[in-house]
């Protein structure tokens, strides 16, 4: 059995995520967050370390998708 923990995000971000995932295979904000975090962790594990440039690229992609703001 998998244990879970709670991660808090601002309500306005959660609302935007809900709008964004509408019509996708993600059924909830939690599904999307798990996917994104898993992707980042896998990338980190494959490369040994995330360089600053790789982290900035991930942040840029998330920003382009509307998940992060300046």
Structural notes for this entry:
Helices cover 61% and strands 0% of the residues. It is mainly α and 70 residues long. The chain has a domain at 27-69. The protein starts with 10 loop residues before the first helix and ends in a 6-residue tail after the last helix. The mean pLDDT is 81. This is CopG family transcriptional regulator. InterPro entries: Ribbon_hlx_hlx (IPR010985).
| Fraction of helical residues | 55-70%
- Strand content is under 5%
Shape annotation? globular
Secondary-structure-based class equals mainly alpha
Number of helices: 3
H/E series: HHH
Q: Mean of residue pLDDT?
A: 81
- What does the largest sheet look like? none
Would you count the extended β strands for me? 0
- Kindly provide the radius of gyration, computed on alpha-carbon positions and rounded to a whole number of angstroms: 13 Å
Distance between the termini: 38 Å
Uncertain runs: none
Short characterization:
The protein is mainly α and 70 residues long. It is built from three helices and no strands. It is 61% helix and 0% strand.
What key attributes describe this structure?
CopG family transcriptional regulator; mainly alpha; Ribbon_hlx_hlx; 70 residues
List the helices and strands and how they pair.
Layout: H1 11-21, H2 29-47, H3 52-64
């Amino acid at each position: 059995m998998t244990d879970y923990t709670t991660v808090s995000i601002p309500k306005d971000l959660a609302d935007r995520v809900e709008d964004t995932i509408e019509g996708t295979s993600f059924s909830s904000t939690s599904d999307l967050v798990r996917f994104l975090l898993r992707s980042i962790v896998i990338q980190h594990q494959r490369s040994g370390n995330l360089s600053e440039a790789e982290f900035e690229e991930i942040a840029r992609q998330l920003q382009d998708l509307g998940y992060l703001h300046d």
